[in-house]
Amino acid sequence: MSTRKLVANFLSLLLGVVVSQCLPGFDALAQHHALIVGVGQYSSASGATPLQGVPKDLDVARRMAIALGIPADRIIELRDSNATKVNIVAALEGIRQKIMVGEHVFIYFSGHGTSYTTSAGCEQAVVPYTPGRHTVDDVITEAELATYTSRISEKADKAIVLIDACFSGGMGAAGTRSVARAFGARPKFISRSDDQCSVAVNQTSATRGFIPVIQRFGIPEENFVQISAARHNEVSWDTEQYGGLATYSLGQCLLGDAQDLNRSGAITLDEVRLCAQTKLDALMAPHRSEGMLPSTILMRGARNLVVVTDAPIKPPFAGGAAEPPAAISAAPYSVPPDQSAKVDIPITTAPVPIPFDGHIPGALAETSRELPAEQLAASSATLADIFAQRNGRLRLEVVAPKRLIIGRDVFNFSVTSSMDGYLYAVMLGSDGKSFYLLYPNKLDRDNRIKANLRYTFPKAGWSISAAGPAGTNQVLFVVAPSPVNKQLFSAVDNSAGGPFSFSVADLTARKRLVDFFVGSGRQGHDRRIAAAMVRVDEVP
Questions:
Q1: Domain residue ranges of the chain, discontinuous segments joined by +
Q2: Are 307 and 254 in contact (CB under 8 A)?
Q3: What pTM was estimated for this model as a whole?
Q4: Is CATH 2.60.40.1520 what the domain over 5-241+296-310 is classified as, yes or no?
Q5: Which of 66, 126, 344, 351 would you label with 50, given CA atoms 20 to 30 Å apart?
Q6: pLDDT of 225-260, one tens digit each?
Q7: d(CA 452, CA 395)
Q8: How do residues 23-65 score in pLDDT, each as one tens digit?
């Protein structure tokens, strides 16, 4: 697998998952925690089918946790008969008591899921170990899971829940038995023959989702991702050879095979999902004639959560994925340009959101050289990826003009943050050729700010004039609780930028800018950031 630098930036993310989830990266400097639960051998009295691939799932989950910076001695593992509801709940409460503000938690479950009828409709749940046949009191419903993880997320920067289990099934019992013989695969789902929710093909409207449950606890959507291993009417599959096919595919992609499709300099969860779906489809392709179809990996929430920085780049949209292990005859994946090249940069909802194209006087002469449109899109995607890592509980309000007249106006702005920290402002010019570190700068180095105070810029001694060219600049504002290592900005050693450090916006600079804000540039255990993205038009 490729060597990568796994990100350390999970803001208060709560990866709520209805079936299977993928994890973003952690930082070894912080004392993060993980709970890994797997039930493959249920009691004979329970009537649950054994899942032979669960040991492999637990191995993958542990390697993911360690790769993401969680120390081995902070990984709690509950397996088979130890994985009772009482023990799982106690472990979650222990993590809640130990975790510090801004740290990360990874929660993983592999085992059976179930769905049953309640007065409010179909209730989905995971099935822990039970000595006898399980009842509704023995399972962990998605509402209960949301309760436990929401308590953790009150302190955690990101609480990540990855569950590989089926909460609903779309295949009849006879069909699943026949494919089990053909491929050694079993659905990770316990059905009840007398309960219509156990065959949930047409239960979409009645089936509650994890995201609304999580949001009832006040967890912002920016702070979680839901990656489902299967749609509401599909099953996820367990095999002895690979383990859970969704876990296997997601693990392969997160730990080495996913590509930076938009060339932003980082790999996001959505790029991991695209890779994993291709692998899963390839694994299941030989068995379509037997009526066995791949599940669909779905994702909702913070799709652009960065999980890998400093990733090797391959030609985009050319299908040049890393070669899968010999055991899998998976074809390389590709993405239509109209999907992967699309860049959507959200604008802050501050009183006067500011888009800015403040071309800085004295910038490099070579910035007049035009760059391909795709390179501008890639540099925009870099800022968008960083912005997507923000903590939804934090607020950063930026007020500035929407447009500036070239040769006349100066760029003034004010900033108010909901937390104490260190303020950074990075601009991408309208031509996409350079990133500028507007603040702090060579004339104003003390970038500490206090919560709920309004700061106005520029301060005395420096200014930013609208000097053209005409177009739209994008400015990313970030407040971090600890100072960022400015050496990672990769600034050009040239006085042409005046007081502002700048870097030509090539691939190397994009990687380093991501690393600057969400990777090794971060210091301390608190990984939260507040962020705002704004644009300003420069016009003649």
A1: 5-241+296-310, 365-539
A2: yes
A3: 0.77
A4: no
A5: 66
A6: 777 777 766 778 888 999 999 899 989 988 889 999
A7: 10
A8: 334 444 456 899 999 999 999 999 888 999 999 999 999 988 8
